[in-house]
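Example complex used in Figure S2.
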Amino acid sequence: MIEVIIMKKRSISTKLAVLMVAVALLQGILFLTVFSINGGFGYLRKNIATSFDNIASSRASSLEHIMLDSWVNLDDYTDEIQKTIDQQLTLGNHTIEDLADNRILNNQILDQVSASLIDLLREKSTTEAYLILGGYGEEADAIHCGLRFRDLDPTINGGTKDLMMETGSNSIARKNNITLDSFWTSRFNNSNDYLMQYFSRIRQTAEENPSYSASELGCWSNLYRWAPNDMQMITYAVPLMSDGTVYGILGISVSVSYLETLLPYQELDQDGYGSYVLASTDTSRQIYAPLLSTGIANIYYSDGAKELVLKNSTEASSLRKDTDTGLLGSVQELNLYRRTSPYRDEKWALIAMEANENLFSVSNQLNVSVALAFIISILIGIFFALIGSYYFGSPIKKMANTLRSMRPEDEIKLPSTRITELDELSNAIMTLNLDVRENASKLSQIIGLMDLPLGVIEYRSSSSSVFCTEKVVTLLSLKPEQYQKGYMKRCYFEDFFQRNELLELLAKSDEIDFCTENMLTQRWVHFKSLVKADRTLIAVTDITQDMYERQKMEYERDYDILTHLLNRRAFKRKVKAILTDSETMKLQNGAMLMWDLDNLKYINDSYGHDFGDQYIQKAAWVFGRLGSVNALVARISGDEFMAFIMNYETKEEILKRMQTITDGLYNTKLIVPDGNEISIRASGGIAWFPDDGGTYEELHRYADFAMYDAKNTAKGAYKEFNHKIFDRDYLLFKGREDLNRLIENKAVEYAFQPIVSAADGQVYAYEALMRPTLETLRSPADVIRLARAQSKLRDIEILTFTQVLAAYQQHKKEIGHRKIFINSIPDQILPSDVLTQLRAEYSEYFRQMVVEIIETEQGDMDLMDYKHQLFEELGALTAIDDFGSGYSSESSLLNLRPSYVKIDLTIVRDIHIDKDRQSLIHNLVSYCKPRNIKVIAEGVETFEEMETLIQLQVDYLQGYYLGRPCREIREIDSKITHEIIKGH
Amino acid sequence: MMKKNIICLSGLTAFFLASCLTGCQRKDQLDPNNPVTISVLTYYNGAQQIAFDELVKEFNKTIGAKKGIFVEASTSGDLTELSNTLDFELSKDAAQRELPDIFSCYATTAYSFDKEGLLANLNEYFSEEELAEYIDAYIEEGKVGTDDALLFLPVAKSTEVMTLNKTDWEPFAQETGITPDDLTTWEGVTASAQKYYEWTDAQTPAPNDGKAMFGRDAISNFIIAGTHQLGFDLFEVDSNRKATVTMNEDALRKIWDNYYVPYISGYFTSTGRFASDDMKTGNIILMVGSSSGATYVPTEVTVDDEEPYAIETVTMAVPDFAGCSSIAIQQGAGMTISKSDSLHEKASAEFLKWFTDTDANTRFTIVSSYLPVKKEANSMEAIEKAAQDNSLALNKTTKDSIEVSLEECSSRELVTSQVFDNSGSCRTIINDALLDKAAEDREAVKNLISANGGTLKEAVAQYDTNENFSDWYQTLKTKLEETVILD
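Predicted assembly (1471 residues):
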């Protein structure tokens, strides 16, 4: 919405600017047009040139006036002086010729004319006035008597005080009270070539034109100096003649500096760029020889150093141009000579000169001014146009910027623009913002109240910051200083995501579990991202608790608590997984290892289970050293460990590892309470992958077999699996497996066979008989055999007692007060813990229990005695089983003094026929009766046998004839009861 | 509506700006394409003027052309004319004044112009380093403006030297036994002059036609330096450049006795513009004049309408009063820059820098026997080398004059005229008071003799009196006292 407003306003300001600029341009063009229609600058240039010309012209005429009317009009003085000379000559009877070499005469004359000469100087206002006569004869051409007075400031008439004598008699000077100048000489002594020429030219011209008047023969000189260090002058001289003979020269001279004051170049140009050049030329009027110049042109034209060639100029028709310097000149000719003058071809001109750019600087300046004014006015117009549009546009822009710079959570406060419409707009925005904020804050308050372990991130690729709820910072362990008012710097945020490889979340909708890497706490979070067009929403949930529980569960599921090795199930799963992927994993040279701790049973028996556990733990620790990289180690059962190792270069290496384990085990000692150190010993087996097998089951079985083999042949060592041996010993091995299974799974049931009283034919007791439930191991005899072979008899013993007692409990009602006979395995004693447990659980049943003991070996009498006492202490009775066969003999009867004696079925068999058997039983009964030892006959299969036994006064009867072992508690057939009662 | 106003306004502003830009640009910086013309007014004449004009031309063609400065030099012909011109300008209304950009002046002139605010402060155009190249005392002399602002730059310096017409001196010396050593004190000069008068008087049968031996220029220098040497300056100047007259009668009497008395006796004279003019016409054989007058020192003497004869001259140090330590007057007009616009002032400063720099300055001073103003240039070796390098003829008179000047400047106390309100007028008053009085009374003495036919001594005695001195003294004192307090 805001963006739209800005765009729209911008276009307004642009339009405004364009319009205003156009107006400015239009005005400029109008201005130029009017200006050029009015005549532009050509008119101005023409005016300037004319004015320049006019100034020069008027200056020239004033100069001409001074020179002609004032300076050179010497006629009066010529006459006067000539008259004086004539008088003097007449007075002294001299002729004009005498003047040539009579110095005294000359000085006399000079003395007389000095006043006239001073008057001349005064009147003409020139720098000098002079009179040259003779006096030194013809031969000394350069030396003449004469007078020359100088007035350095001719415009001021100061009497004689400011006059100086330059040449002439000292006495004349004194007489006239005139000081001598520094270059004073008493006579003209011209060493100056130019002056010599100049004077002789005047003489010559005069003598060649005797009819001309003096004024017609007057001539202007060029610049010269009287003496080398004296000032520069020009002079005008006329010859003094008498009868065609020139005897003297009268002249005036004007110093250059005086002339210069007459040529005020400043009048040409107020900035002083004009110059005046006084130059002589000939009739061609092409080449001018400058005499003197004032102003800047002095650089070029002083001293007549350079000729001036003037051509018509293109710049202004009335002006001419110096081809060399490029200066423009207004040439004003000075008519110095009369048309009749012999010097009439000598032309002088006053040339006013100025450089083109200076002369026309005003018009040029105006040109530039107008152009600049045009440009600047347009620029100013544009400037104001931009300012104007900025003025209108900027409050809106400012408003937009303010809004843009604000975070959503900020309260919008817009400055007043002082434009009503805009202020209304901003008020509306502020109100809207307040409402939105209120709503938003409700939601966040609710979330806050809930204290959900939930954070939300809103990421916009266009924004420099990322919105996060506060929870996100704690959940992700972000730096709090990077978080401000709900926003996180985008770069920091992206950096964090990149570091943790979470950037995918921003790109596509996804879910990731992530563990924060924090030194102190480990936290699991769950990211769920939702990518929209311009932003990504991410929900962050704390799943640490769930994760821990899951991990704990997994651990408990997969690991053995005692050893912290894998348990059987996990091991199996993992190994299976590996083997399934063996192809892709390029699995090679693996092995399934299996160990069985050799002495556990002994330790348990001798030192108790705590030490057994320690023993296991120490062993596990050694096995655990196989590591986890390329090995999986598990505790399979109580004393069995398994490991699967893989990816070894060669079998030898694996064997080496195996040996290391063996050595490790050997070096690991368990210190038992009696102070002995017991080495841990285990037998191991190896099955090779893939040589021996590819599946877990195969490898397991073969390793197991190899271990079994080792255990049977060389305890404490390990063996590799060997197929031949396996084939040979498989069955035995198999039975072992079954037995283990049986024990482990308690895969036995008990059948109860009634023991019937021979007196009243009622069931006196039941014997619990083991019935393995395994398909592969059905015969209790096999069980016992295997158990014996594998030293598992005690397990069977425990199994028997626990199971029978459990069954008893189950059938308690049916059994009633009747006794239960249990077959205890000879030379096996229930572990005390089992006993304790049993006693705790079944103590009330012991009194109804009769433990059948058989004597196995001669030396076991003590053990039997112990058992007998043990059970008797429990309140149970004992019976000697299989009396009359094997090792159960009279001695046991004597030693143990049991409560019952069970006659072995081999003696009972066909008793009704065999007298020996009858007498044997008779004797036994005779012996037992007085001693209150009840006699039970087993294996009664026929009525005759029963009848005979009853006759023999056997106390109780047992056998198929009376009742088969049965899972239920059954009474005997009433027919049998009748027969028994009848049999008496 | 408002838009239109803005545009109109901007148009006007633009035109104003544009005009200003094009119009002003000429006046800001020196521009070779638009050279600025500056006028220089000097009092130079003769060789000095020619040398100056040459240098100006050279400047215009070289540095001036390069930087855009055109110098137009003019001269008033002599110092008096210059003073008149300047005084005339000063007397005009401010608006009417046409001051040259640069003009020659003395401290006194500079001071009175500065009071009117007409001079540029040269410190703005010359750096400390640049000023340090000049002889310190010369720069000090130029610091006469407010807060010791430097108002004028020394361009050429001179002192006074004494020149003896050796040719005409020798017969006299031989016959009377007087030696040049007798000319080292004013008392000695006065005594020798009397002897010379008597000796020349004796040459002809006519009585009282003895000749003056001595003449000098700038009587004011004699009085100012003389009283200073005698320990009594004429004025005491306070920090506001206000002076009080501190004339000492005894000191002035000594001046009187060594100028007025010999003058009315005919032993001293002053008839030409300069003492050199008197020497040129054989009126005197010993003169004191500016060391810069060497070019005017005559090489020949023309007596009346006689044929000139060559003479040999000797340059000597100016005498002192007996028993006083040696001093030398230090003079030489400097040049000031009038206040105008920065462009003209800058251009003027550029010219002055060039003109006072060792090379140009030495060339200028050599031909006019001035002393250059920079330290490095102030030695005979440097001057001779400059002459040689520039193929300038350094004639004997000039060389002697420079040598003696340099010697005086280095070994004597240098005295300059005091600068205070109306010091220029005071100087003229002092000068004229003694000279006019002497000239006037000399005529009276001559008339007295010719009328009464008495002896010179008798005639002189009538004027060489305490009363006459006192009158003169009091008159002068009163005049000066009136002058120093003039606005």
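Chain B touches chain A through 55 residues (CB under 8 Å). The CA atoms of residues 125 and 349 of chain B lie 6 Å apart.
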